[in-house]
Amino acid sequence: MNGQNRKDISPGIDVYIVLKKDQRSGKRTKGVVKDILTNSSFHPHGIKVRLQDGQVGRVQEIIN
Question: What is the pLDDT of residues 34-60, one digit of tens each?
């Protein structure tokens, strides 16, 4: 599942995000969602979240 819809994301789920510094390379970082930072219900580049370790990026994939 992609991370474009806010309703699919909740604190505590495992996700792959792309950090700002990795946007060109597309390198993904795995982590657990702590906070949802995007207010809108949809974002074409992925919902922005903060992971439990403090890193911030846009959700690329939700891990079931």
Answer: 999 999 999 999 999 999 999 999 999
Task: Match 């809108």 to its residue by tokens.
Answer: 40
Q: What is the CATH number of the domain that holds 22?
A: 2.30.30
* 29-53 b/e (C-beta count within 10 Å ≥ 16 → b): eebebbeeebeeeebeebbbbbbee
This prediction's pTM = 0.93
pLDDT at 62: 97
Question: 37 near 51, Cβ under 8 Å?
Answer: no
> Can you read off the two tokens belonging to residue 23?
């946007």
> Where in the sequence is the domain holding 17, given as residue range(s)?
6-62
